[in-house]
Amino acid sequence: MRLFDTLTRTDHDLVPQDGTTFRFYCCGPTVYGPAHIGNFRTFVLQDVLRRTLETGGFRTLHVRNITDLDDKTIRDSQKAGQSLSEFTAGWAAKFHADCGKLACLPPHIEPSAVAHIPQQISMIEALVAKGHAYPAPDGSVYFKIASFPDYGRLSHLDTRELDLGKTQNVRANADEYEKDNLSDFVLWKTRRPEDGENFWASPWGEGRPGWHLECSAMIREYLGDSFDLHSGGEDLIFPHHENEIAQSQCSCGGHFAAHWFHITHLLVDGGKMSKSLGNLYTLDDLAARGHTPMEVRYVLLGGHYRKQLNFTLDSLGAAREALNKMAKAARQLATRIGGDSTLEEGDLGPFQGAWDSLQNDLNTPGTLGGIFTGLREAADLTGVDAAKALAGLNRVLKALGLVLPDAVEDRAADIPPEIQSLADERWQLRQAKDWAKSDELRAALAAQGWVVKDGKDGYALTKR
Ligand code: AMP
Ligand code: ZN
After folding, report:
1. Exposed site from 54, 208, 366, 410, fewest CB < 10 Å?
2. Measured from the CB, is residue 215 less than 6 Å from ligand 1?
3. Three-class SS of residue 282?
4. Of all protein residues, whose CA lies closest to atom 11 belonging to ligand 1?
5. Which residues lie closer than 8 Å to 288 by C-beta, 6 or more apart?
6. Does 232 contact ligand 1 (Cβ within 6 A)?
7. Residue with CA at minimum distance from ligand 1 atom 15
8. Which CA distances in Å does 385 have to 267, 335, 373?
9. What are the structural domains of the chain?
10. What phi-psi label fits residue 122: left (phi over 0), alpha (psi between -120 and 50 degrees) or beta?
């Protein structure tokens, strides 16, 4: 498959360097609260990349870290009155549960920053020894960006009129800083009272690693000095990934990532998501409004990863309709199959176009469109042809990680009678246009883990 590379700004073929396994790294979540659907745009697209490679016959090695040590996790664990490890373990578990609901495959290796302190310290030692890092008077250690002429290639600094030569004595101690602050960044932060219990011994005294270092150290540990692809949301291009490249190449040599895959940020209602605007949605927020994780996944797949995607609550309703339509057509196709359904290599029948879109710079909206085109073309197929078409459809759905909703009647057997009667009562209220009461019952059902979806002639109940 071909994919756009942020560094060279062109498409490249994705092929494993070692000839067998595509080895890639994704910057993982900072576990200090629930992930929002913007985060999930990035994680879902990374999942589709992996699934597409695997469905296309490659093996993969997927490493994604857990950021359990930075300014934010320390600050919020203290607010919560919990130890850092207790606090981050809770949010990591929540993240895993949400990923499961969204059908994101778990990475093969999921290392955490706290579990790799020695590796981070030895990377700093190597950088100091080679003259790329220096201790400041307070005991913190900084990376000297002027010592690495390639600094800024990924984020195209040369076009941003920032001068590496002017960074003498300009230092950033915070984990996150702005796009136009070109500065030496912190590798080791000397112990401060606000860090509480969270400090470790090092050759430069007690303290903790800076945030950018963890990925470099864990990548070295699990993928070595050269690997196939590195990924994150677009906000990570600068400074985080720029800093990772500097740390890794200066301490270890090697090519680091052969390919950079960045996902454009999700917008909500046309703007940036923020808590204060009340538009920062989590999966739970959307479930409380009756939306399934698959509907969320469908919406996230509905935009090309290099283009802006604007999330609205209405788009979830449209996703529900699209999924139901897809599911209905797939069920009809399944009733017409006969004979042998084994797929020959490279033969996806009417779903070839959908598959080709994925191969072409992970064009997920093109793939969704291709599925509907394929379903229309398959409408007259029977026997072996229908079987082949269905196998082709399933291959594309697997790559997208989409699980189609069951027919309403398929689900009925699992519903407890008291839930069924609540849902029936709600349907009656809706028919009577008593929206307030019917919404109350929707919330009551949601509280017990049931999601109601309304159709024209009835409703579907699914367990969350
Ligand atoms: P964080 O938990 O903040 O470390 O972010 C986890 C991942 O989500 C990173 O790859 C971020 O770049 C990505 N991310 C954060 N906000 C958004 C957004 N609005 N849209 C897409 N990706 C995002
Ligand atoms: Zn990272």
Report:
1. 410
2. no
3. coil
4. 233
5. 443, 446
6. yes
7. 39
8. 42, 12, 16
9. 2-263 (3.40.50.620), 267-400 (no CATH), 417-463 (no CATH)
10. alpha
- 326-353 as b/e: b if 16+ CB within 10 A: bbebbeebeebbeeeeebeeeebbbbeb
Per-residue pLDDT band for 437 (boundaries 50, 70, 90) equals: very high
* Whether residue 273 has its Cβ less than 6 Å from ligand 1: yes
- Is residue 175 scored above 80 in pLDDT? no
Give ion ligand 2 contacts, CB < 5 A.
Answer: 27, 215
Which numbered ligand comes closest to the C-alpha of 268? Answer: 1
C-beta 303 within 6 A of ligand 1: no
Q: Is the pLDDT of residue 411 over 50?
A: no
Query: What single string gives the DSSP state of each residue in 122-190?
Result: HHHHHHHHTTSEEE-TTS-EEE-GGG-TTTTTTTTGGGTT--GGGGTT-EE-SS---TT---EEEEEEE
Predicted confidence at residue 337, as pLDDT, reads 87
- Nearest Cα residue to 119 out of 222, 257, 198: 222
CA distance 55 to 419: 39
Q: Dihedral sign for Cα 179, 181, 187, 191, please.
A: negative
